[in-house]
Amino acid sequence: MYTYGNMYLINSYKFGGGAPPPIDPDAQAFLTAAAITDPTITSAIDTLVVQLKADSIWTKMKAIYPFVGGTAASHKFNLKDPQDTDAAFRLVFNGGWTHSANGALPNGTNGWANTYLVPLSILTESSKHLSFYLRSDNTPINVDPVDMGSFSSGGGKDFLLSKRTAQIGMLSNILVSNTQTEPRGLSLITRTGTTNKLFKGNNLVNVVSGTGISAPFNVYIGALNLAAPYGYTNNEFAFASIGDGLTDTEESNLYTAAQNFNTTLARQI
Question: Whose CB has fewer CB within 10 Å in the chain, the N or C terminal residue?
Fold first, then answer.
């Protein structure tokens, strides 16, 4: 019984059931790069990778940031390609951040992380998504906080933010918004064809269609890349992803995977 992780087999092994279960090789590559041996994190990462593969989401991902291990050195790695290079889209943290077992928390005044992923180069205009899982609802320090994205005043715009009054996203210059009072949990914007869909948790909250172009700057996390960091946020990240467009079913499955992942780590919302 290996589907959706190894918890059953791990428990069997602990009680004398034989050899330890195999770890998915992509999960193991990440754990090795991040120098993580903790069994709870190992199980959570393995289950996440196996679940994303079973749901045919893994191949759509360009970057997945699970923020595990409690340090900048472990939080920087991209689960999809855990190499310590710009080309592998590992994060470079700048300014003030607090790293813990709960995730990565920017300070809201100068903290941001560079993914080195340029939507115009890596994603297509008609198939892309951005997502993040926030753990906190801190009073904003910046007057205009943006959680994630890239924005060209004269070109493409791809960003996503979640705050107490609204959830706002833009892919290929098409704006989608939602009134809300709870910024925490999973926020996701996805584009397939000419249609942008905004999700909060497992709920589709708005749909807007139109044509445009992708952003030409690196995506930042913790702020918006407006040719320089802009709109620093001070909410804690427990998961983030960038990749191709997702169907409604795939979004639902990603929500379930992210929720299960953070529940295993006792940091779910």
Answer: N
Distance (Å, rounded) from C-alpha 121 to C-alpha 75? 24
Looking at the structure of the chain, the number of domains it has is: 1
Q: Where do runs of H (alpha helix) occur along 3-38?
A: 7-14, 25-33
What gap in Å lies between CA 115 and CA 12, rounded to an integer?
39
User: Cα(136)–Cα(105) distance, rounded to whole angstroms?
Assistant: 9
pLDDT computed for residue 21 by the predictor: 78
**Does residue 196 sit in helix, strand or coil?**
strand
Distances in Å between the Cα of 53 and the Cα atoms of 46, 63, 82, 104 are 11, 14, 17, 25
Q: What is the pTM of this model?
A: 0.93
| All residues at 6 or more sequence positions from 15 whose CB lies less than 8 Å from its CB, including other chains | none
Q: Are 89 and 78 within 8 A, CB to CB? A: yes
Rounded to an integer, the average pLDDT of 2-22 is 52
Token output for 202: 């497992």
CATH number of the domain to which 68 belongs: 2.60.120
The predicted-structure confidence for 81-125, as pLDDT tens digits, reads as follows 999 999 999 999 999 999 999 999 999 999 999 999 999 999 999
With a CB cutoff of 8 Å and minimum separation 6, the contacts of 21 are 2, 6, 9, 10, 13
Q: Answer yes or no: is 149 within a domain.
A: yes
Contacts of 105 (CB under 8 A, 6+ apart): 97, 98, 99, 136, 234, 235, 236, 237
Position 267 in a domain: no
Give the pLDDT confidence score for residue 223 in this predicted structure. Answer: 98
What does the pLDDT average to over 27-34?
98
Strands 237-243 and 61-65: antiparallel
Q: What is the Cα 126 distance to its own chain's centre? A: 20
